[in-house]
Amino acid sequence: MGTDRLDEANNYKEQGNVAFKNADWMTAVAQYSKAIDVLNNDSHDMAVYLKNRAAAYLKQEKFEDAIRDCDKSLELAPMDPKALFRRCQALEAVERFEEAYRDATQLLKVDPSNKAIQPVLERLFKITQKRAKENSQVSNKVDSMIKLCFDVSSDREKRESAFNNLLVLAREKAGSEIMLKKLVVQQIKRLLKVEKSKEIYVTSIRIIGELCKHGPERTRHILRDVGIPWFLEILDSTNAEQVNAAQYCMQVILNSFSGMENKPDTKPVQSMCEQHKAEIDTLLSCLVYAINNRMISGLARDSIMELLMRNIHYTYLSWAERLVEIGGVERLMEVASELEEYKYESAMAITPSTRTVAAVCLARVYENMYYDQARDKFMSHIDVFLKEKLLSPEIEHKVRVIVAITALLRGPLDVGNAIIGKEGIMEMILVMANTLDDPLQQKVAVECIIAAASKKDKAKAIITQGVDILKKLYVSSNDNIRVRALVGLCKLGSSGGNDASIKPFADGSNLKLAEACRRFLLHPGKDQDIRKWSAEGLSYLTLDAEVKEKLIEDKPALLALIELAKTGDQSVLYGVVTTLVNLCNAYEKQEMVPELVELAKFAKHHIPEEHTFDDPDFVTKRLMILGEVGVTTALVALAKTESHNSKELIARVFNALCSEKELRGIVVSQGGSKTLIPLSLNGTDMGKRHAAQALSRIAITMNPEVAFPGQRALEVIRPLINLLANDCTALENFEALMGLCNIAQMSEQARQRILKEGGLGKIDHYLYEDHLMLCRAAAQATCNMAMSPDVVKVYEGDNDKMKFMVALVLDEDLETTMAASGALAILTSSSEKCCEKFFDAKSWEESIKYMLSHANVDVQYRGVVILRNLLANSKELAEKIIATDVMEVTMAVTKLEDETRRKVIVIAEECLQIAEKYGIIKKPTEVDPFLLAEQERRMNALNLGEEEEE
Fold it and tell me: Quick check: is 906 in a domain?
């Protein structure tokens, strides 16, 4: 049995070796991992598998993983040279230079003849000596900064400057180590009890956050010094900057313990989560218990819920079930039912966004209840909360129940619908809405009616029962009641969706309702709450094409919507973004298959009709107007939401804007490209696709270095590669290929990132597609990728890639031919092996002749360059070419009298000279006169663009 397991493990190892040679690092890691799992013992073979996987991790730039594998390998096989060398490389990459130097010196002792380690050793020696000197200087800097920082009698500006310098030092490993030795953390804790400068206060919190970035041990040490309650204490503030700094600091702590990073697509390291489970559980438990703390600010409460949302999802720390167990659902429901109108000593402080954030948090928890038993448990906690309130005779508790149900309808919709479908709930809501002497009851009831009318069946029921009540409330003297009743009417009036044939109310009613919403939106003196509700009314009405056209011509209303969005208030998000989605026609459209339409007509089923105002020309006009009035600034402000559904809506609008070439520059200049990257990595599958497609469209028409400055261009690569999937449309595939093509030509760093993300294999797949545009785009992307030495190695490997590229030159499409010939020119210039593999293709002679005699000067130039590379490679390859009549065609090329082909002729002459040096062709003066006549005939054929006759 043991031998069988070893054979199976070795088989996986060999597959991993093949993948490694082909630069398929992901597959290599997977195969080596299988070998490790199968063998599962402490043997010499296990040490080999581990160091091999470490090599693949190095190629992927997963240096910490490489270090861990080398550590284990060296435990099993101490002093193994390869394991030492790979750990040395990984340690150097993560700037653990002293440890890397230790491994390099050890390797030299083990293997004194190893020439590869000598330059590494010299380099690391210089670095470690320099760092020792710098550490001494850093220590002096830290000392001088500390003296200024913690002397409260010093000049305030000097202290602020000193704290900023400490913040910079905290980001460096050397600086952070010295600061911890100097007890800076304890001094900051004492200082913040008396510090009056808000800037110093916030910078101090940021310093703690930076210090926690340097590993879990250091983070644990800092937590012991200050304690979790201290973090909750500094989070409790009405200053947004302080709250953001404290929230960031707490996220850094969770990241440090779990191995995550502050990036949207980050993933926790399972082993680290298990190792630091106690710390993670304690911190998240404290956050859950603080949700409904009466003593904290509204901003702090929102921040706590955002922290929970960011970490409880199953792709992160998967803590949702634990949150339910410790009463987190009831606490969230309590926050969701809070009202500003009930001002007691025990009332919770909330912001305009609090109930929205609570609703989204409940939705995120419910998303993680991915099996029936968990969902039943979630529902039981909801029922407990509602029953407790409903059993009380006080009307206040019933009002809170309605507010909480509204939050459920705006968060976990399935749960909200289940609650509102229970006996007596809808009747209670309608009774409250009809209570004319209590504006608060009316207000919360109407809000719940609006949220409940989310499905057509619910809308119909409310139209029959509640439309008269809404009409009565619309004539109320209270603007807050009127605007909510108006939104209720708007939602019911739009229940036909974008189907022009369904009109729940009389013709023209929607335009009148839209005008009423506009008045609330623009009326001077109206508070933000009223403007928010008017925007929500427009979000329903703009499903009507006539309302869209009316609104798009109303510049003051559009600007008011944008200004409302720029406040960043999460409660305005739905209204503004949905209105924009409708104006752009960026919603999901049902494909109308002609055969099914005819079948539906025959069966007398209803067939949706599209309004004339939703034709592409009208949509384009609306997009251009939105782009020019600065809608991107609104999208950037709203994209900070934690709601995945809202992120999808924002991504849809971005993608619609980027479908117009003229608007892509505007989107970039207003911060859209920076916002699109996290949207493309975090959210719903469809939302990520729309954001990625928007990025690819920007990358196609703009210089990627301008559109995505700095490292941002590298961050765009993964979303684009994600679009190279079978479930994406051909247009998405094509635009992603073109975007990658442009990014690949930027730098070797960009090409390496594409390789690391497995992009080359996915690009290759489209070379074989029977689709002109996809094949062309893949060939162009491959041509730019060929500039990477690692891609050249792939083409040198045991595969048919060179053979297929030679055949692709003969494609009927000119652009594909140019890309394939360009790739071959690069590959044959870079590799002797690729030159040899060129002749593996049966069509190699035909391909060379096709390029040499091509009417397009660029293709012809690539052809003579390839020929020169093949001839210069070796005499054996040159003889293969001489055995055909390729050189006769080349000689004919040198006789061309076309100045536009001067560079082609020069290279062709070089080809003849190389062949002459080998002595395998005669000089032109010695050529047979009959051969000269034949060359002249070929030259004339080339000049006339004719095809040769056989």
Answer: yes
d(CA 205, CA 186): 12
Contact 214, 173 (CB under 8 A): yes
Phi/psi-derived region of residue 927, left when phi > 0, alpha when psi is between -120 and 50, beta in every other case:
beta
Report the candidate in 607, 498, 491, 507 with the shortest Cα–Cα distance to residue 545.
498
Give whole-number Cα distances, 288 to 304, 330, 412, 743, in Å: 8, 10, 19, 44
Euclidean distance between CA atoms 336 and 681, whole angstroms: 29
Report the C-alpha gap between 508 and 632 in whole angstroms.
31
- Whether pLDDT at 263 is above 90: no
Residue-wise pLDDT tens digits, 397-445: 999 999 999 999 988 988 988 898 888 888 888 888 888 788 888 888 8
Residue with tokens 């797949």: 765
The reply to whether the predicted model has a pTM over 0.85 is no
The 3-state secondary structure of 317-335, one letter per residue: CCCHHHHHHCCHHHHHHHH
Mention every residue, 6+ apart, whose C-beta is less than 8 A from residue 189.
225, 226, 230
Q: Is residue 16 part of a domain?
A: yes
Residue 746 lies in a domain: no
- pLDDT above 90: percentage of residues in the chain: 43
φ, ψ for residue 582, nearest 5 deg = -65, -40
Domain end among 66, 97, 114: 114
Lowest mean pLDDT among 137-151, 182-196, 601-615: 601-615
Kindly list the distances between the CA atom of residue 724 and the CA atoms of 718, 752, 854, in Å, as whole numbers in the listed order: 10, 18, 32
Q: What pLDDT score was predicted for residue 289?
A: 95
Total count of domains within the chain: 2
Q: What is the pLDDT of residue 216?
A: 87
CATH of the domain at 9: 1.25.40.10
| DSSP-based three-state secondary structure for 703 | coil
**CATH (domain of 867):** 1.25.10.10
Identify whether the C-beta of residue 488 lies closer than 8 Å to the C-beta of residue 446.
yes
Burial of 29 by CB count in 10 Å (0-12 exposed, 13-18 middle, 19+ buried)?
A: buried
Q: What is the pLDDT of residue 283?
A: 93
Q: C-alpha angle 553/557/559, rounded to 5°?
A: 100
Q: Dig out the tokens for 194 from the structure.
A: 């008396």
At residue 392, φ and ψ (nearest 5 deg) are: -75, 140
**End-of-domain residue from the set 81, 114, 147:** 114
Report the C-alpha gap between 89 and 925 in whole angstroms: 59
- Helix, strand or coil for residue 882? helix
Does position 815 have pLDDT exceeding 90, yes or no?
yes
947 secondary structure, DSSP code: P
**How far is it, in rounded angstroms, from Cα 418 to Cα 405?**
10
Task: Report the alpha-carbon distance of residue 96 to residue 173 in Å, rounded.
Answer: 9
pLDDT tens track for 530-576: 888 888 888 888 888 888 888 899 899 888 888 888 887 777 888 88
Residue 313: per-residue pLDDT: 78
User: Where in the sequence is the domain holding 939, given as residue range(s)?
Assistant: 801-950
Q: Is 128 exposed, middle or buried (0-12, 13-18, 19+ CB in 10 A)?
A: middle
Residue 849 belongs to a domain:
yes
CB 769 within 8 A of CB 730: no
Instruction: Render pLDDT for 670-697 as a digit per residue (tens, 0 to 9).
Output: 999 999 999 998 888 899 999 999 999 9
What secondary structure letter does DSSP report for 708? S
How much is the pLDDT for 611?
66
Is the four-CA dihedral 473, 475, 479, 485 of positive or negative sign? positive
Distance CA 70, CA 779 (A): 39
